[in-house]
Amino acid sequence: MKVNKNFENIGLSATLEINEKSNKLISEGKTIYKFGLGQSPFPVPEIVVKELINKSKEKDYLEVIGLKKLREVVAKYHSEKNNYKYLPENIIVGPGTKELLFQLQFILNYDLILPIPSWVSYGPQAKLLNKKIYYIKSSAEENWNINPLLLDECCANNPLAKLLIINSPNNPSGTRFNNYKKIGEVAKKYKLIVVSDEIYNELNYDGSYESITNYYPEGTIVSSGLSKWCGAGGWRIGTMSFPNELKNIFDAFRVMASETFTSVSAPIQYAAIKAYSENHDKYLLNSRKILKFISEFIYEEFSNVGIKCQKAQGGFYMLCDFSETKISKFNDSRTLCKTILEKTGFAMLPGTDFGFNENELITRIAFVDFDGEKALNFLESNVLDSKSLNKIFPNIDNGVRKLTNFIENFS
């Protein structure tokens, strides 16, 4: 049987693979600290869950682009957050943002521009579609932001490189873009199509919502959904909001959706209306407090043993550079991760999955291995401090100490 050659050298998505491997090791009786898959630890808000139950009998196919009322509240939400008037008829609801991103890449006859680092699936999706990828390397000193000068150079030399995907707060670094204005100027100069993946934007630790749409709304498609800020990853619902200037792309997307996923589950769409229309300020405020508390604990502990990190500014990820630690003798990040998993049970992903070279001893951690509901309940009447760390976040605490002890005692 002949398989499309585009599948050569592409394996299972790295985040899903490490999750399945971690679960297998746990089922074998091993103690594993799951810092691999970035799944929100927090429960879906109760009002949203109740609405899903109430609408569980809804069984009809809905409009291809999504339930009208849902598109209306999504348009209102992003119009307020992104400072641009989005129309309900330019919103599409799909089965997760990953699927929507893939379909958009299929529709656009452009090569892809990606920063290094970037999320594990952007690049493989382009490879499956036989697209060229132009990588722009960033650095910790630049807060892992894409360099506008390098972006300009890339666009000047590659006329088909017209699609740029950016993500902030960033997966894998946990840092935020602080140069949207300059990126927007380059994007406007070359008439790029920008996909702004804002799936983590409600998890900025300071509560702000930032977007390139403040500088380049006419060429930006906003990708978002409920998986990260609303804890509903397994529900598989995502959205894309198109400016009216890109109506032709939206129209093509509607056709594509009609011939592929048809429509998203009806009960989930009805429940999602509550997610976008109700006030979740307290839930989000406490989620951010918890994530910031954990990130600062990890940053301090890792820094003490020579692991270099940029402080996370949002979301639940961090890049870790082991090049100046006692275990820097490893030749590549994949071997480093494999050895650490075997020796300590600490599961994380190598930097190669995010675009780094093999010999760069950089890894990504996702600090979500804790009971989010328990943590939220604790915060109702308590303050997060070192005394509560092991009580509320035992796997985070024990996992970090296992790893740092392994480094300190390595010879």
Task: Provide tags for this entry.
alpha/beta, Aspartate Aminotransferase, domain 1, Aspartate Aminotransferase, domain 2, 7-stranded mixed β-sheet, 4-stranded antiparallel β-sheet, 13 strands
Would you kindly provide a written description of the structure presented here, covering whatever features stand out?
With 411 residues, the protein is an alpha/beta fold. The chain has 2 domains: 5-43 and 281-408, Aspartate Aminotransferase, domain 1 (Alpha-Beta Complex); 59-277, Aspartate Aminotransferase, domain 2, CATH 3.40.640. Helix content is 41%, strand content 13%. It contains 14 helices and 13 strands. It has helices at 14-27, 46-54, 68-82, 97-107, 122-128, 148-157, 180-190, 247-258, 266-277, 281-304, 333-344, 372-379, 386-392, 394-408; strands at residues 33-34, 91-94, 111-116, 133-137, 161-167, 193-197, 220-225, 238-241, 308-309, 317-321, 346-347, 349-350, 362-366. The strands form 3 sheets. The protein has a 7-stranded mixed beta sheet, with helices on both faces. Strands 9-10-13-12 form a 4-stranded antiparallel beta sheet. It has a two-stranded parallel sheet with strand order 1-11. Strand 9 and strand 10 (317-321) form a beta hairpin. Helix 6 (148-157) runs parallel beside helix 7. The protein is globular.
